[in-house]
Write a structure and sequence with these properties.
globular; four-stranded antiparallel β-sheet; seven-stranded mixed β-sheet; 8 helices; 237 residues; Rossmann fold; binds S-adenosylmethionine; alpha/beta; N-terminal domain of TfIIb
Length: 237
C-alpha cells in the first residue's frame, strides 16, 4: 500500500502547520448535529465514537460536549499533539486509518471533513472501511463526509478575513479525470507581507465506489447524501 508521508502533509498545508487556524475555519459546520440526528433516527445509543482522520479533533470535541466520548486517530503527529492539549479527556493516537486496530468497538465510527480524499486508490478506500468494521459492534453507525463527483481545472482569487489578518488567496487546481485526482496549489498573501504556500492532491470518490467498499466490508447502507454527511451505513444487528 502507498506510504503516506505525514511530514509532507503537514508541511504543505497552512491549516496543518497552524492547527488553531484550521479550527477557526471549520467551527461553523453542523456535522456534529447531523451525526446525532442520524444516530437518534437509527436508535443508536451514541455513547462512544471513533473518528478516523480526526485532525484537530474538532468534531470529537463537539460530540464530547453532548456526552459522547471516544477516540480519534490521525497520521499527523503535530495535529494529535494539538488535539491532546485541546481535548485532554479524549483518547487520541497517531495512526494510519487504513491499518489501525485499537482493540475496542464504538457506537459511531466517523470519517469526515474530506479525510477519504487523501486515499487515492480503491484498495486504500476498502482498507479504511475494513478498519471501520473492525471497530464496530451490532448497530454501530458509520458516517462519512467527503467530496464526491468530478472535479475540474480552475483558478480562483478571493479576499478573506482570517485570525492571522486579511488575506488574498490564489488557488489553482488541475483535474486528472483518469485517476479522479485534483491537484491544488494555493498561496495565502497576508496584508503584513507574509506569504504561505500549500499543495495537495485529493481523490474525488463516487457514491458507487463508496457504497461498494462499505458493503464489501460488511455494513448495510442506510442513507446517501441527505445531510452534510455524504454517506451513512450500519453494522448489522
Ligand atoms: C481535511 S482533514 C479533516 C480532519 C477532520 N476529519 C476534520 O473534519 O476536521 C484530513 C485529515 O485526514 C488525515 N489523514 C489523511 N490520510 C490519513 C491516513 N491514512 N490515516 C490517518 N489520517 C489520515 C490528515 O492528516 C488530516 O488530518
Amino acid at each position: 500500500m502507498r506510504t503516506i508521508d505525514a511530514e509532507s502533509l503537514t508541511r504543505n498545508n497552512l491549516a496543518y502547520r497552524e492547527p488553531a487556524f484550521y479550527d477557526e475555519f471549520l467551527t461553523e459546520d453542523s456535522l456534529a448535529g447531523d451525526i446525532r440526528d442520524v444516530a437518534a433516527r437509527e436508535n443508536n445509543p451514541a455513547l462512544s465514537v471513533l473518528d478516523l482522520g480526526c485532525g484537530t479533533a474538532r468534531l470529537l470535541g463537539e460530540l464530547f460536549r453532548h456526552g459522547i466520548t471516544g477516540a480519534g486517530i490521525d497520521v499527523q503527529p503535530d495535529l494529535i499533539d494539538w488535539a491532546r492539549t485541546e481535548h485532554p479527556a479524549l483518547r487520541l493516537e497517531v495512526a494510519d486509518l487504513r491499518t489501525v486496530r485499537l482493540g475496542s468497538t464504538f457506537d459511531l465510527v466517523v470519517c469526515v471533513g474530506n479525510t477519504l480524499s487523501y486515499l487515492h486508490t480503491e484498495p486504500e478506500l476498502a482498507a479504511a472501511f475494513t478498519t471501520a468494521a473492525a471497530h464496530s459492534h451490532p448497530g454501530t453507525l458509520l458516517a462519512v463526509a467527503t467530496v464526491i463527483g468530478a472535479g475540474r481545472d480552475c483558478s480562483t482569487t478571493s479576499d478573506i478575513a482570517t485570525s492571522l489578518g486579511p488575506a488574498t488567496v490564489d488557488t489553482v487546481s488541475e483535474w486528472n479525470p483518469a485517476e479522479s485526482l485534483l491537484s491544488t496549489r494555493r498561496t495565502w498573501r497576508f496584508s503584513n507581507g507574509r506569504a504561505e504556500h500549500d499543495s495537495m492532491c485529493r481523490r474525488f470518490w463516487s457514491i458507487d465506489e463508496i457504497d461498494r467498499c462499505v458493503r464489501a466490508s460488511g455494513f448495510d447502507t442506510t442513507s446517501t447524501g441527505t445531510t452534510e454527511l455524504t454517506f451513512c451505513a450500519k453494522w448489522p444487528r
